[in-house]
Specification:
The chain has 399 residues and is of the alpha/beta class. Helices cover 39% and strands 14% of the residues. β5, α8 and β6 form a beta-alpha-beta unit. α3 packs parallel to α10, α4 packs across α9 and α13 packs across α15. It is globular. The chain binds pyridoxal-5'-phosphate (PLP).
Length: 399
């Protein structure tokens, strides 16, 4: 039968997507920002959350939801209780939204002294202006954490593996302090990934990730995710919808694809990181090597208890003898390892800590944080261990 509609109408209103009940083995990318309803009531019901369905992509989006659900399944695999996830446009969007969902004017946060720089900025430059106060404490000292808790404390915050000292958080101990205070325990587990440690199994209530790092793993997509129990994550979703930090569909596809190889990648990165750390420990030009897998690292016992067997993360912090200049010179001499920020990708990258991620701290501030001015953080990629070791060794050795 001929179509009586005009050419432009036919060009827009194409035949509908054929429905089929097979499972595609790759995640479809749903780029639509808006979805049609059969009735005005069906639209109202989805918007009111009284019926399932999609309405507008900032509110919920199938590809972003699939990514968050996949991370929730990885983080919650060992738990009887239901774990759900929320997707975000970046790790900072996830952290901002979780903190705004769980705090408010007049409330208080207990956070680590050496918290990720972006999170520090969020707490000090942004949330403080809205009446949220933060106590930064040495979270390896549980008594100090307990002493920092106040009646108005809204949450306890920690990072599974801290940058750049690679100090491991005492998740069960911190969780007990939060539980005593009756507040949620929020953990940034970016440096660990669920392949190394799943904080929900050790008492965390909400886990956040910069998916830009290990989860995506290829340095080609920015994203974040928060996972936890449905009650808390419902509050997080509401705040996400209001704040607008939703993950885009193309990024969601890339991050979701990264998850398929996450265990392979991270297991390999952990093996190489430990081998590199052990080999560099005895190098004459090296003052110290930080890696939780080293027997000499202050967190080794905790890492053995909390981390999956033999996996201590893919980051190694190397401090050459000679201070700030030696650290910068080490970076300058690297050939295979790129001098670049971020971590968790296929390519190994190095950054001189005192001039980059911790540039706000002077030498006294660095010393207080236990960071040598020469420290170089290396995120181990997927190159062969021998090639990485050869590059680091030549960079340390040349004069
Ligand atoms: C990178 C990072 C973030 C921020 O993530 P973005 O995706 O860059 O917004 C938060 N926490 C840690 C530990 C990180 O390494």
């Amino acid at each position: 039968m001929p179509d009586p509609r005009g050419e432009s109408t036919r060009a827009v209103h194409t035949p509908p997507l054929a429905s089929f009940d097979q499972t595609p083995l790759a995640l479809p990318v749903h780029r639509a920002t808006t979805y049609a309803f059969d009735t005005a009531q069906a639209y109202a019901d989805v918007l009111a959350d009284t019926a399932d369905g999609y309405c507008y992509a900032r509110i919920d989006s199938p590809t972003a939801d699939a990514f968050a659900a996949a991370v929730a399944a990885l983080e919650g695999a060992g738990l009887d209780d239901e774990v759900v996830g929320q997707p975000f446009a970046s790790g900072m969007a996830a952290i901002t939204t979780v903190l705004m969902a769980l705090t408010g004017a007049g409330r208080h946060v207990v956070a680590p002294l050496r918290v990720y720089g972006g999170t520090y900025g969020l707490l000090v430059h942004q949330l403080a202006r809205f009446g949220v106060e933060t106590s930064f404490v040495d979270t390896t000292d549980l008594d100090a954490v307990r002493a920092a808790v106040r009646p108005e404390t809204a949450l306890v915050y920690a990072e599974t593996i801290a940058n750049p000292t690679l100090t491991v958080a005492d998740l069960p101990g911190l969780s007990a302090v939060a539980r005593e205070a009756g507040v949620p325990f929020v953990v940034d587990s970016t440096f660990a990934s669920p392949v190394v440690c799943r904080p929900l199994e050790h008492g965390a209530d909400v886990v956040v990730h910069s998916a830009t790092k290990y989860l995506g793993g290829h340095s080609d997509a920015t994203g974040g995710v928060a996972v936890g129990a449905p009650e808390l994550l419902t509050r997080v979703r509401r705040a996400r919808v209001d704040l607008g930090g939703q993950l885009g569909p193309d990024e969601a596809f890339l991050l979701h694809r990264g998850l398929a190889t996450l265990p392979l990648r991270v297991a390999q990165q952990c093996r190489t990181a430990l081998a590199v750390a052990q080999a560099l420990e005895s190098h004459p030009a090296v003052q110290s090597v930080d890696h939780p897998g080293l027997a000499a690292h202050a967190s080794n016992a905790l890492a053995r208890k909390l981390f999956d067997g033999g996996r201590y993360g893919g980051v190694v912090t190397v401090t050459p003898r000679g201070g700030r200049e030696a650290g910068m010179a080490l970076c300058d001499r690297l050939r295979l390892v790129a001098v670049a920020t971020s971590l968790g990708g296929t390519h190994s990258v190095a950054s001189h800590v005192a001039s980059t991620t911790h540039r706000q701290l002077d030498d006294a501030g660095l010393a207080a944080a236990g960071i040598d001015p020469g420290a170089v953080r290396v995120s181990i990629g997927l190159e062969d261990a021998d090639d990485l070791l050869a590059d680091l060794t030549q960079a340390l050795g040349a004069r």
